[in-house]
Design a protein that fits this description.
Layout (H helix, E strand, L loop, with lengths): L1 H15 L3 E5 L6 H11 L2 H4 L3 E5 L3 E2 L15 E2 L2 E2 L6 E2 L1 H15 L4 E5 L1 H14 L12 E5 L7 H8 L7 E6 L5 H8 L6 E5 L11 H33 L1
Parallel strand pairs: 1-2, 1-7, 7-8, 8-9, 9-10
Antiparallel strand pairs: 3-4, 5-6
Pfam families: FSH1
Protein name: Serine hydrolase domain-containing protein
Organism: Spirodela intermedia
């Protein structure tokens, strides 16, 4: 009987739960731009199952944005980097900013990132596991990576990818994306990554074909169970402590 009750609780909670997701936008864009990219391209069947929060990066763009003329300013960047993508400026400040945002507006269950935001989102679970980032917020339960890659700095790579990342992950790889080879290398750092391939370039893709939508919905169902299971465990511990 106890197991049946637990299963009923899980089913009920899963039906009503919405994983809360912090969304990290691309280089020299904004939270509002990413909001439009996602909500205008993805079907409501996907977006309605997530509580999406779109943050602006901490630093105003220091140069021209690739989306000028397509999306209105202001534009922001998470950190600055050299041409080899091995030296970073304001990186620690960026990590602190994200953590403070998560404390003030969370709790968050997972991250979703595009481009520069995807590189950050993909690295943070490993860095959190090492105790070098996001030490004051709950453990990340999943990530969604759109047009991502790995940090090229050996120091950051050691912190982020030296051990396989067990956090559930969904990766979007574009056939024409200049970062696709780097995104494929990133997959090797994750245990059992889920991948959606699309024919476009470096962009938030539409989820139009049946296979992509089915993959996305299956991943959402999985993370809903992870999030709800974690919440029920916490409630059980709190109830036991109060008894």
């Amino acid at each position: 009987m106890g197991n049946l009750v637990a299963e009923d609780d899980l089913a009920t909670a899963t039906a009503t739960a919405k994983p809360r997701v912090l969304c990290l936008h691309g280089f020299r864009t904004s939270g509002e731009i990413m909001r439009k990219q996602v909500l205008e391209k993805w079907p409501e069947a996907v977006t309605s199952r997530l509580d999406l929060v779109f943050a602006d990066a901490p630093f105003p763009a220091e140069g021209k944005s690739d989306v000028e003329g397509i999306f209105a300013p202001p534009y922001y960047e998470w950190f600055q980097f050299d041409k080899a993508f091995k030296e970073y400026r304001n990186f620690d400040e960026c990590l602190n900013y994200i953590e403070e945002f998560m404390i003030q507006h969370g709790p968050f269950d997972g991250l979703m990132g595009f481009s520069q935001g995807a590189i950050l989102s993909a690295a943070l679970p490993g860095m959190q596991a090492k105790g070098v980032a996001l030490t004051r917020v709950p453990k990340l339960k999943f990530v969604m990576i759109i047009g991502g890659a790995k940090f090229a700095s050996p120091v950051v790579a050691e912190m982020a990818y030296s051990e396989k990342i067990s956090c559930p992950s969904l990766h979007f790889l574009g056939e024409l994306d200049f970062l696709r080879p780097h995104g494929e290398v990133l997959l090797e750092s994750y245990e059992e990554p889920v991948v959606i391939h699309h024919p476009k370039g470096h962009t938030v893709p539409r989820l139009l074909d049946e296979k992509s939508l089915e993959t996305a919905m299956s991943f959402l169902q999985r993370i809903e169970q992870v999030v709800v299971g974690s919440d029920l465990s916490i409630e059980g511990i709190e109830a036991a402590s109060a008894a």
